[in-house]
Amino acid sequence: MIKLAIYGKGGIGKSTVTSNLSAAFAMRGKKVIQIGCDPKADSTGNLLAGKSLMPVMNYLREYDEDPTSLEEITARGFGNVLCIETGGPTPGLGCAGRGIISTFNLLDDLRLLEREKPDVVLFDVLGDVVCGGFAAPIREGYAEKVLIVTSGEKMALYAAGNINSAVLNFEDRGYASVEGIILNRRNVELEREKVETFARERGLRIVADIPRDRAFQTAEDQGRTIVELDPDGTIALKFFDLADRLLAEEAGGMMSGTDTPHGFGKLEDCGCPM
Ligand code: ADP
Ligand code: SF4
Ligand code: MG
User: What is the set of domains in the chain, with CATH numbers?
Assistant: First the structure.
């Protein structure tokens, strides 16, 4: 099973990249789960053609009790991808990071992995805040690999640096490691060079280079991915290429591939004194 977390600054293109990658895995015949871990709760929109999906935290607020089945908090999207959104707290009240932890424990209680038996699980995670809660997707057997999405912009690289440091902090406990950088272009000056320097200084590699293209907006307006709309185009091929390399690595045992068929591990609280 491939378990991958995609981190990056807000607005950098994490959900766009994650949903295109999910679609590419699905078109390769893989069983995919995509879990949006961002209070924006819009990770899976491009897989669901505009269908609304109740975020888990909204469900808990509205009904004041845990859902009893996965159907209440999931939806099937393009390529039969199982879509889940953690959502966020009421603005100004509560903590989104803690919400991620309780959502994951709930998914474990509902036996998500045993029931779905996925080939690929993708976590789409906000990376502006890298505290105990937002690090949940890289702890306790959740994601094993991290992809960091960045452009050549200063703030995107700053967030990427923080995410890399956070992953390194947890790595010695046998948690996730950084698989590489996805350059999602904003067309700033010397963009490739800037991101290459950033990657080299940290011993990382650029695993995909996605152009800035209006086709992403056109697809988003229809609630679809480019992979679905134009599977033979040059942009879709970049996502198929990345998906194929990840599958080949997994098959060759280069990714650790430790399956957890009996579920994820239980997550402790984030340890925040707040
Ligand atoms: P995030 O999930 O990181 O907050 P999104 O994936 O929602 O960011 O992307 C933010 C906006 O940028 C969306 O409107 C999306 O269509 C657009 N976008 C993302 N990547 C590209 C790209 N390579 N070219 C053009 N627009 C893009
Ligand atoms: Fe929330 Fe603090 Fe925990 Fe982060 S460390 S998840 S901000 S309570
Ligand atoms: Mg997003």
Answer: 2-251 (3.40.50.300)
